[in-house]
Amino acid sequence: QVDHMTELVDDLLDVSRVTRGLVTLDLRLVDLNAIARDAVEQTQPLVQARGHALDLRLHGHPVIVQGDATRLIQVMANVLNNAAKYTPEGGHLTISVSLADGWGEVAVRDDGIGIAPELLPHVFELFSQAERTPDRSQGGLGLGLALVKGLVELHGGNVHAQSDGAGTGSTFTILLPATTGAVAAPQAAQEAGTPAPAQHSLRVLIVDDNSDAADTTATCLEAMGWQVAVEYSAAAALVRAADFRPGVCLLDIGLPDMDGHQLARELLALPQTRASVMVALTGYGQQQDRARSSQAGFAHHLVKPVSLDALAALLAAVEAERAGGG
Questions:
Q1: Is 139 exposed, middle or buried, given 0-12, 13-18 or 19+ CB atoms closer than 10 A?
Q2: Between 144-154 and 69-85, two packed helices, what is the crossing angle to 10 degrees?
Q3: What are phi and psi of 303, to 5 degrees?
Q4: Where does the pLDDT of residue 19 fall: very low under 50, low under 70, confident under 90, or very high at 90 and above?
Q5: pTM over 0.85
Q6: For the purposes of burial, counting CB atoms within 10 Å of the CB of 145, is it exposed (0-12), middle (13-18) or buried (19 or more)?
């Protein structure tokens, strides 16, 4: 009962923060496939306790959005929990990730009790609940879906529910704007009759202790034809740079073992990376922050969250300048 009450109070506080505009999102490039996997892992105890079969269907390639990973996991976990609670024991749940028309889509389907037509327009309102079935022991206050709607809209997306009525199950669909460039892989492009992304000669080293952010950015750049290496610490980056010889180094400033300013200085002191272009990645964009990065040898200062389009344009400009002998 204490655990249950704690969950309800947390939901109430979250809903209050969202409705009052007090939620600040930590926006980064995230892959909806990874978000869906984490949400499934988080809801697995309830799914298993109710004897449900859960089918996870991921997209074949990264579906990249600008989002707060923690909040998006919370959104999907709430929808999954809702599906599990309103589906009789031994039911079937499906969560699928797809990409279409510039939108990343996550759909959660169940074969549960369904939603009556008169309730359907109100499912995302505070304290809205379907009628409880005798086997539904997990109660609530009808906060989860209201929180889902608020958080999705903060991400510039939308969510809607669909059901053909009582006993027909439900489908909840979350739509989030996909980042330009996080689209079909080269093979899909070739099958559609369009050329694959150009292969770039410029090598890019990404150094960030946030592995999700680093890996997602690398995946996007690789899909666009760049040659990318990733490291999660300054020490590893120094070793990797000697062999990889990057033309551009994207360095997080807040690294745990050595800050990005010192790492830039040490990279510029190496013969293999003396001519590399240093690009700072940081959450701080004040004039004094830019001045400090410039003093450390950075040619560019990017403030997180970084637009993939802007990053690709910067890399293309560096590559063109080098090709022209500049």
A1: exposed
A2: 150
A3: -100, 130
A4: low
A5: no
A6: buried
Q: Which amino acid is at 282?
A: T
pLDDT surpasses 60 at 132:
no
Q: How far apart are CA 219 and CA 184, in angstroms?
A: 12
Q: Where are the beta strands (DSSP E) in the chain?
A: 28-31, 53-57, 64-67, 92-100, 103-110, 158-162, 170-177, 203-207, 227-231, 248-252, 277-282, 300-303
Residue 235 has pLDDT above 90, yes or no: yes
CA–CA distance, 301 with 281 (Å, rounded to integer): 6
Helices 260-269 and 234-244: angle between axes, nearest 10 degrees? 30
Find, among 66, 69, 47, the residue nearest to 56 by Cα.
Answer: 47
Q: 3-class SS at 26?
A: coil
CA angle 225, 227, 233 (to 5 degrees): 135
**Dist CA 54 CA 80 (whole Å):** 10
Neighbour tally for 151: CB within 10 Å: 24
Runs of H (alpha helix) within 50-161 = 69-85, 144-154
- Per-residue HEC secondary structure of 271-318 comes to CCCCCCEEEEEECCCCHHHHHHHHHCCCCEEEECCCCHHHHHHHHHHH
Lowest mean pLDDT among 47-56, 65-74, 269-278: 65-74
Assess contact for 267 and 238: CB atoms under 8 A. Answer: yes
CA angle 30, 242, 208 (to 5 degrees): 20
Burial class (CB in 10 A: 0-12, 13-18, 19+), 239: exposed
- Helices and strands (H, E) in the chain, number of each type: 10, 12
Q: At 10, which helix (H) or strand (E)?
A: helix 2-19
Mean of all residue pLDDT scores within the chain: 82
